[in-house]
Amino acid sequence: MSEDTAQQKKPGREYLDAPITKIGAVAWLRANLFNTWYNSLLSVLLVYGLAVTVPPFFKWAFVDSLWNSSAAACRDIDGACWSIIPQNVKFIFLGFFPTGQEWRPILAMAILIGLVIYSRERHRWRKSLLWMWLIALVVMGTLMHGGVFGMPVVETSKWSGLPLTLMLSFFGIIAAYPLGVLLALGRRSRMPTIKTMCVVYIEMIRGVPLISLLFMSSVMFPLFLPEGVTIDKVLRAQVAIIMFTAAYIAEVVRGGLQAMPRGQYEAADSLGLNYGQTMRLVILPQALKIVIPPTVGILLAAFKDTSLVVIIALYDILKTTKVTLSNPQWTNYSTEAYIFLALLYFIFCYAMSSYSRRLERELHTGR
User: Fold this and answer.
1) Same-domain status, 231 and 118
2) Is the distance from CB of 145 to CB of 153 less than 8 angstroms?
């Protein structure tokens, strides 16, 4: 206790703490949830809605549920049958990958997720990290395809489940981002030919849904190839996702470039920097920082849009889940399967969103 405080408190007199209506939980509730009559009404309705829905859901999901039983045992309960997940976990996650070779896609996913986690720290963004990604790409492709070191060859038609979803989404995002930046720079170029080509590409891609691009890559594109020449279906789907995502990223980055004040360009010119140095050292670092939130929104949408590959007969994790539900034993438990699938997508999307917020805080010049 400081000397000033000790002098203010007179001996022989009791001092009480401030009432809870001024500070603490009650004060917070009054200030945020019950400060006006309509906020009070909404708060009461919200509490009532939670009281009506949460206890029955908790009873259905946890109290009356089964977690690892047969489909026959689930017919006699009133709760959730989460057993559909552990009983079909191999097919849901790995799809049609050959029995006995499951370690290969599991290891490939572990390498991909581990490298993503390793790349989160900005001080590791060096040329060595680029080489690590290139080597990891070769290793993951070798694990999935096989044909070396005694591993049997697995055709891409059997690549399915979570490994296919992660590869299409993560490598699509990684390749689409720099392509989108180049398209944005090309659209603002003073060279008419380059600018026109970028504008036509961006507007054409943004004018059609992703489903149409996937359909064209799977059905229409092979018709234009010479006889006997084929391109892998997974690769075609990957290119379609990259092209689609890059067009939207280009417009977001272009907005960031337009937001840069003219003084930044003049300052770079006064330092004698050429166009490439100006963009690399001055303009792009600031523009890309500005557009982090909308860029992450596009990348999250690209991650979820990989589920559309089902229309070209690629079995991502959504399709393998649907195939599991087509089994007559598990047909009645689609709610549990889709809740699990939604939770899985949420985990990946929340991790990406959380990292973007962290990156914004680190790059914020005012901090």
Assistant:
1) no
2) yes
d(CA 166, CA 144) in angstroms, rounded, equals 13
Query: What pLDDT does residue 11 have?
Result: 57
- Dist. CA 300–CA 97, nearest whole Å: 27
Residue 285 maps to a domain: yes
Distance CA 312, CA 307 (A): 11
Predicted TM-score (pTM) of the model is: 0.84
Q: Please check the confidence at residue 21 and state whether its pLDDT lies above 60.
A: no
Based on the fold, state whether residues 159 and 148 are members of the same structural domain. no
d(CA 107, CA 144): 9
pLDDT(337) > 70: yes
Structural domain includes residue 342: no
Structural domain total, the chain: 3
Which domain does 25 fall in, by range? 17-63
Same structural domain for residues 166 and 149? no
pLDDT digits (tens, 9 = 90+) for 273-323: 998 899 999 999 999 999 999 999 999 999 999 989 988 888 999 999 999
Half-sphere exposure of 177 (CA within 13 A, CB side): 16
Can you give the pLDDT at residue 143? 94
Task: Please state the separation of Cα 161 from the chain's center in Å.
Answer: 17
Q: Is 351 exposed, middle or buried (0-12, 13-18, 19+ CB in 10 A)?
A: middle
DSSP string, 184-221: HHHHT-S-HHHHHHHHHHHHHHHTS-HHHHHHIIIIIG
What integer pLDDT is reported at residue 110 of this predicted model?
95
Which residues does 197 contact at the CB level (< 8 Å), separation at least 6? 186
Q: Are residues 181 and 288 in the same domain?
A: yes
> From the CB of residue 228, how many other CB atoms can be counted at a distance below 10 Å?
5
Q: Is 80 helix (H, G, I), strand (E, B) or coil?
A: coil
Q: Would you say residue 48 lies in a domain?
A: yes
Considering the domain architecture, whether residues 31 and 174 belong to the same structural domain is answered as no
Residues 111 and 208 in one domain: no
